[in-house]
Design brief:
About 60% of the residues lie in helices and about 15% in strands. It contains five helices and three strands; from the N terminus they run H-E-H-H-H-E-E-H. Helix 1 packs across helix 2, helix 1 crosses helix 4 and helix 2 packs antiparallel against helix 3.
Amino acid sequence: MRHRNGGFKLGRNTSHRRALLRNLVTSVIIEDRVETTVAKAKAVRPHVEKMITLGKKGDVHSRRQALSFLMTDAAVERLFDTVAPRYGDRQGGYLRIVRTGFQKGDGAEKAFIELLGAEKQLDAKRQKREDVKSKKRAELEKQLEESKKDEEKGGEEAA
């Protein structure tokens, strides 16, 4: 029985589990949205919520506590400058876990863990990616047309 045994072990030893959670929390804060397994998403949720609460406090002690847990200084800057102010009037519930399907190799259930209110930033990132893809596609089509023209000219000269 697991009475009064809180937390998720995730099939790892203590140091590996701590490193995994720290990396996931850092990624969620930097990227706003991360795809992972449902168990990891549920395990990382309280840690992200605690980091956002520290960011809302905004004092030096909170910043140092966040620095001791998060992996990069850039994540701490983003937490205190952009992420935490987004939730100034909200008393918790900063995350959403959306199930997305199953993993190919072992069939584990996958999910997105994302920050609420980050839709604008995610849409901007998605739009930017689509623009880059369309530019690349247009360049490739242009190169393909030029190579076809060169082949036709080469074929006419040989005849």
